[in-house]
């Protein structure tokens, strides 16, 4: 009986021990499983947090990228507009230069037309003058109105082309002090202009000795210098020679000389040409 009790006691002990061990194992297993699960849940929460952070960062990056693209497009557009602006500015400058060139050319043409008109009027007036008085009067108007001369004298050569050159004043405009003053071919600027048949133009802004002309225009008829126009002063508003002055001096040098010679011949013959019969007698 004792053996059976011991055996039953041993089986009970063994059975309890297994139960305890099983319970201890299960307790330990579940405990570790719970801890493991908690750790997994914790990691899952951390990963979910990191995932949210990454999504937020990704959204921000997408917005920034879109913004960068917009800025890039804007910069490209600005660059294109800058190029267009530069091209327009260049065209405007070119247009301004062209307008300036056209204006300068138009002004030049206007001056040429003005010069031609003055030359035509001067030439026409000289050719219709029939008396020496008319010729000198027209010369006076041309020099005063077209050139701006304030004082001048017309001197004609005494005698023919041979021998010493002697000039006497025949018309004075506001320089009566020269009346009766004789000039020889060797005397100063006037004598040189007549001897060489070369026009002389001084500098109006430079000081001159008293009695020295500002310009001398030889009067050439054919191949002979018959006299000279001596200019002593300009009008106050005129300070220099211009191109038209030189052209008018050149015209006067030839056309006025012919008009003076023609008027002298008419005064000498005292018979004006009126018809074919007189033409045949010439």
The major pleated sheet works out as:
6 strands, antiparallel
Sequence stretches where pLDDT stays below 50 over 5 or more residues: 1-5
Helix-strand pattern, N to C? HHEEEHEEEHH
| Beta-strand content | 5-15%
Explain the overall architecture.
With 282 residues, the chain is an alpha+beta fold. It contains five helices and six strands. It has helices spanning 2-128, 132-147, 188-196, 243-269, 276-281, and strands at residues 149-157, 166-173, 183-184, 200-201, 215-221, 224-234. The protein starts with a helix and ends with a helix. Residues 1-5 have low confidence and may be disordered.
Keyphrases for this structure?
single chain, 282 residues, alpha+beta, six-stranded antiparallel beta sheet, disordered N terminus
